[in-house]
Amino acid sequence: MSLLLKDRVWTMEAPTAKRGVYPLHGFKLGLYRLPIKLEDPLEIKSVHDGLKKAFEMDAYADRIFATYRWKEQNMKDPDAKGYEEVNLSVTVEIVSGEVVDIIYQIFPIEKFGDPNWVKDYRKKADHFAKMVIDTILRNTILADKMISYLAKAEKINQYEAIQRLEELTPLAKIVLNAKPKATEATDEIVEDDGEIAIPDGAKPGPIDVAYKSKMKPSSPFDANGYTVKTWGRKGANNGILGVWGEFVSVDYDICIADGGCIEACPVGVYEWFDTPGNPASGKKPLMSKEPDCIFCLACENVCPPKAIKIFEQK
Predict the structure, then answer these.
(1) Could you tell me which residues come within 8 angstroms of residue 147 by beta carbon, excluding any fewer than 6 positions away?
(2) Which of 1, 22, 239, 257 has a CA 20 to 30 Å removed from the CA of 35?
(3) Which of 130, 168, 129, 131 is nearest to 146 (CA)?
């Protein structure tokens, strides 16, 4: 498909890739051409499997499909007279080959039953498609490939390349465990995937400041190039997340995700990431910029359940 589109898509230079749109039978189509490759079938599988919790995923040969669905309503009250709703969707296609093409089409609204009351449908669909693309580029092994490319092409170090990728993908969601697990393991790291008793809701605070001596180190989390250390994390379904962060430490089993820490932090240490299956909340503030912490304690002071402890780096 990408070869057929190559000479037909009107493109313009953009920082991430060449992006273009053109009308085709009432559709809107966007093409992102990335200067990287997905050659190993395991890499394709990794992208597919890593985003299952975020989108509806499908794969066929060298193609991966990510579908995002949303609902539109013509009024807020579902019991009101004349109430209507419609389920809408947009699908992003990742095509591997000599380069990686990411393609999306916006179908006419009539495809969903002609709900002519929907406002800004194309604008919303375009936004959601770009959100899916940004999420793919920030969370999967494509992020590693893009970081390596940016570092080489722009002659910058890895940290600067990570910042560039973040600038290029402003709509990205943070998706937990969207990359293959590291093959190396140590005797110190334990992650139990067996039967786990999931607590009912958030456990009471405050965070135990002596958690490092009472809890076992667990598998770290790769936050787009920065490794966040974890303690007491169990299982693969987010039932017990434990404490994350060595210096900016948050007990995610206490955290209720009110967002106060994100708003209070003056240097942007935190960003949202999804934790579906967690009994306390379906998202958490990830300390992805932990090294930038200035130890002002603003986040620690505003956290309602006292789930945060800041340790100044020695």
Answers:
(1) 158, 161, 162, 165, 225
(2) 22
(3) 168
295 close to 310: Cβ distance less than 8 angstroms: yes
* Domain endpoint, select from 120, 147, 175: 175
Domain termination site, one of 130, 149, 175: 175
Beta carbons of 253 and 280 less than 8 angstroms apart: yes
> Which is nearest to 286 in space by CA: 300, 301, 275?
275
Q: Strand, coil or helix: what is 32?
A: strand
pLDDT digits (tens, 9 = 90+) for 181-240: 443 333 344 444 455 667 778 888 899 988 888 888 888 888 877 889 999 888 777 888
Partners of 102 in the β-ladder: 32, 94
| CA 56/CA 54 separation, integer angstroms | 7
User: Do residue 220 and residue 145 come from a single domain?
Assistant: no
In a domain, 194, yes or no: no
Dihedral in degrees, nearest 10, Cα atoms 267, 268, 270, 272: 170
C-alpha span between 21 and 103 (Å, rounded): 10
We report the CATH number of the domain holding residue 252 as: 3.30.70.20
